[in-house]
UniProtKB/TrEMBL annotation:
Catalytic activity, reaction form: oxaloacetate + acetyl-CoA + H2O = citrate + CoA + H(+)
Keyword Acyltransferase: yes
Active site (record annotation): H308, D366
GO cellular component, one term: cytoplasm
Transferase is among the record's keywords: yes
Family (UniProt): Belongs to the citrate synthase family.
Gene label: gltA
Species whose genome carries this gene: Rhabdonatronobacter sediminivivens
Keywords in alphabetical order: Acyltransferase, Transferase, Tricarboxylic acid cycle
Name this polypeptide is given: Citrate synthase
CDD domains on file: EcCS_like (cd06114)
Length: 431
């Protein structure tokens, strides 16, 4: 962090306070308001944290105006081009790109932890067949703390490390089994001879009765989807993981909280909602009607896959995702896909439309990911679980960083109270 000797002066209610400033390595300066309540007897009011840094972090940086996303300083488009998911996991977790030996060791450790405790199958079988796989994931990941007692002591760095590896390794198995359970097929065990993305596809699409060979182009596309979702600084689910973990909750419980948050349609659930919307639009001729609805203040309809709290120019992940969508559909020979046509035309119209331009609403990462996943054979209900398994490394890296940060306290926001002032209880017959 760069040194900053300037102070912000705040005057209110006849008082003047000088507040220290801090400079990040990149990005806007921050005003340190930690002593505001103690010295000034006031709080700040910032619902939705639009102007509040909740922590300090050295993992991921986003410049919303430039449309830039950096993991440990490396741009996402360069990583998407040259790296692969497990290498990005290493980078996020440990801060540097691995040497060949470090990468091999890391990949071996992850690969050796992909199996689930056999008894965990009973958890899956306890759910209704029509349960959403995200509901199963929240439950099963939370239940991991009942199985892996030797990695729940958060004060032990070794246990934190084991929990991180276990979570990254087992999440694809959990997501794939949630899917298999929902379609009534037998669970497929992980295969150590396959890489991370190929193993996931194998667990989702193989059946015991015949050989299933994973197409390397599809495995590469899957790896890319995972990479593009790996981390995104203090988004809603990551902040949820940090908040849950700040009380000392174990890592499995904290990540289960993050999965629950990710499920919402304004966050990770947008990829499912987006494809459902594209299908509902159906054909290119219907687009103007939906654009009109999105602009109507009295209509709750929003264009799913558009807009982002931080990106106000473009989402760099969406650019890479669009290329991948073209590649995958080409490979599968479905360039003529009606949903893709609707998506491309919707994007074109929205990017030229004054309403969307003025509000800086651009396609986000979820706009194209659903099209790729559907082409691979996934039902829409699996889109958000795939986001969850990809984001696990981000959650666990941020959680580890928080636990190791001596400045971190339990997360406990204050409020602007608008309820009744103190009053006396009245007996029921007097009301
Ligand atoms: N369609 C139509 N109008 C929109 C959209 C949209 N997708 N997104 C924002 N707006 C409008 C709002 O109505 C609002 O208009 P107003 O100023 O006239 O009231 C203005 O743009 C600002 O919107 P907010 O909701 O205040 O912006 P915020 O930063 O809180 O929300 C969010 C960001 C949640 C992503 C929002 O753009 C949205 O709901 N998008 C659709 C869901 C989606 O795609 N989510 C995925 C996000 S990326 C991710 O999680 C991986």
């Amino acid at each position: 962090m760069a040194e900053n000797t300037s102070k912000a002066t705040l005057s209110f209610n006849g008082k003047t306070l000088e507040l220290p400033m801090q400079s990040p390595t990149v990005g806007p300066d921050v005003i340190d308001i930690r002593k505001l309540y103690a010295d000034g007897d006031v709080f700040t009011f910032d619902p939705g944290f639009t102007s509040t840094a909740s922590c300090q972090s050295s993992i991921t940086y986003i410049d919303g105006d430039l449309g830039e996303l950096l993991h440990r300083g490396y741009p996402i488009d360069e990583l998407a081009d040259k790296s692969h998911y497990l290498e990005v996991c290493y980078l996020l977790l440990y801060g540097e790109l691995p040497t060949a030996a470090q990468l091999e060791d890391f990949e071996t450790r992850v690969t050796r932890h992909t199996m689930l405790h056999e008894q965990m199958q009973y958890f899956f079988r306890g759910f209704r067949r029509d349960a959403h796989p995200m509901a199963i994931m929240v439950g099963v990941v939370g239940a991991m703390s009942a199985f892996y007692h030797d990695s729940t002591d958060i004060s032990d760095p070794w246990q934190r490390e084991v929990a991180a590896i276990r979570m990254i390794a087992k999440m694809p198995t959990i997501a794939a089994w949630a899917y298999k359970y929902s379609i009534g097929q037998p669970f497929v065990y992980p295969r150590n001879n396959l890489d991370y993305a190929a193993n996931f596809l194998h667990m989702c699409f193989a059946v015991p009765s015949e050989e299933y060979v994973v197409d390397p182009i599809l495995a590469k596309a899957m790896d890319r989807i995972m990479m593009l979702h790996a981390d995104h600084e203090q988004n809603a689910s990551t902040s949820t993981v940090r908040l849950a973990g700040s009380s000392g909750a174990n890592p499995f419980a904290s990540i289960a909280a993050g999965i629950a948050c990710l499920w919402g349609p304004a966050h990770g659930g947008a990829n499912q909602a987006c494809l459902e919307m594209l299908r509902q639009i159906g054909t290119v001729d219907n687009i103007p009607e939906y654009i009109k609805r999105a602009k109507d203040k009295d209509d709750p309809f929003r264009l799913m896959g558009f807009g982002h709290r931080v990106y106000k120019n473009f989402d760099p992940r969406a650019k890479v995702m669009k290329e991948s969508a073209d590649e995958v559909l080409n490979l599968l020979g479905i360039e003529d896909n009606e949903t893709l046509k609707v998506a491309k035309e919707l994007e074109r119209i929205a990017l030229e439309d004054e309403f969307f331009v003025e509000k800086k609403l651009y396609p986000n990462v979820d706009f194209y990911s659903g099209i790729i996943l559907e082409a691979m054979g996934f039902p829409t209900s699996m889109f958000t679980p795939i986001f969850a398994l990809s984001r696990t490394v981000g959650w666990i890296s941020q959680w580890k960083e928080m636990i190791g940060d001596p400045q971190q306290k339990i997360g406990r926001p204050r409020q602007l109270y608008t309820g009744a002032p103190r009053r006396s209880y009245s007996e029921v017959e007097d009301r």
